[in-house]
Amino acid sequence: MKTVHWEMRAITRMDVQSWIRSLVEKGAGPAAIKRAYNLTSSIMRAAVDDDVIAVSPCRSIDLPPIAVKPPQWFTPDQAQSILDGLAPAWRTMCLLGFYTGLRWGELSGLHRHRIDTRRSRLFVVEVNTKSGIKEYPKSSKSRREVPLPPHVLEALERHIHRFDRDAVVFTTITKGRSGRLLADSNWRRQTWWPAVEAAYHFGDDGELQLVPHYPPHSMRHTCASWLVQKGVSLYEVQHLLGHESFQTTQRYAHLQPDAHKAVLGAWERIETPLTIAA
Predict the structure, then answer these.
(1) How many beta carbons lie within 10 A of that of residue 113, not counting itself?
(2) What would the DSSP string read from start to end of 116-170?
(3) Longest dimension (CA), the chain
(4) C-alpha span between 146 and 124 (Å, rounded)
(5) What pLDDT score does 261 carry?
(6) Closest among 102, 85, 97 to 144, alpha carbons compared
(7) DSSP conformational letter for 232
(8) Given pLDDT bands bounded at 50, 70 and 90, which one contains residue 200?
(9) 7: which DSSP letter?
(10) Range with the largest mean pLDDT of 63-77, 211-225, 256-270
């Protein structure tokens, strides 16, 4: 493989655009290209800050569009079947996930003192990462207040009533290894996937079938999907889930009860609709 050495100040915007085009032609995926571009762009910004170059060449670059996949979410029957197959501690954790839309790292990084039982609220401040518990920056939209439905608060209170104020709410429960921070990969393998793979629901045809094989993050999608279907505005859902961009929340727009109301209403107002013989 031939290595090409570039002097940073010699790289132009057209060079960057040509590089992106060559990645597309080589079959690189849009997401991988975006990651590579973002890394290059951050290096160029740092070079500008250090007065190595005057301006960044990463300006007005056309990137290949990333196809937005529709969110994967569970129906209430499917979610209930998953909950029924979990141990009590994980049942409470996933109930909270379905009704708050917290990310897995937010669920597993939740502390006892972040739960306001008097006001039925919890505060998302910390997140559990591979490097341990970290606080979200104060300016991040991920740092937020989340309301708790009464039955979720009740289950949560039963779970935490003996916890110290600073305790992490959900930790390992294996005998001899209890009380440790959860690891995403282990929790999926040992807890989530066995429950999903053993969960059944009745399909539209009345036949018993397995629930969809969706990952834990689908609890977050499920929360948003249920709320939108019940008429909660996309802006409310954006703030609840802590989405930085409204575009992220718009993935759920098609689930709104009146999503196509205006279109259908327009067709109904046409005086002479087209027809075909029966």
Answers:
(1) 13
(2) ETTTTEEEE-EEEETTEEEEPPTT-TTSEEEE--HHHHHHHHHHHTT--TT-BSS
(3) 75
(4) 7
(5) 85
(6) 102
(7) -
(8) very high
(9) -
(10) 211-225
- For 95-128, the pLDDT digits (tens) are 999 999 999 999 999 999 999 999 999 999 999 9
Residues 85 and 199: beta-carbon distance below 8 Å: yes
Describe the chain by its helix, strand, coil percentages, rounded to 5: 45, 10, 45
Instruction: Record the tokens describing residue 89, joined without a space.
Output: 């501690």
Residue 97, both tokens:
């996930």
Note the pLDDT of residue 248.
Answer: 87
Phi and psi based region of residue 181 (left: phi greater than 0; alpha: psi -120 to 50; beta: remaining): beta
Q: Is 50 helix (H, G, I), strand (E, B) or coil?
A: coil
> Which pair of tokens denotes residue 240?
């609840």
pLDDT in tens, 79-98: 999 999 999 999 999 999 99
Q: Is the sign of the CA dihedral 132, 165, 87, 195 positive or negative?
A: negative
Distance CA(182)–CA(201), nearest Å, equals 29
pLDDT tens profile 154-192: 999 999 999 999 999 999 988 878 889 999 999 999 999
The helix or strand, by DSSP H or E, that contains position 98, with its residue range, turns out to be: helix 88-100
215 Cβ neighbours under 8 A, 6+ residues apart: 72, 188, 192
Quick check: 143 and 124 in contact, CB under 8 A? Answer: yes
Residues 6 or more apart whose CB falls under 8 angstroms from that of 106 comprise 124, 126, 127, 128, 142
DSSP assignment letter at 208: E
Name the phi and psi angles at 121, rounded to 5: -135, 155
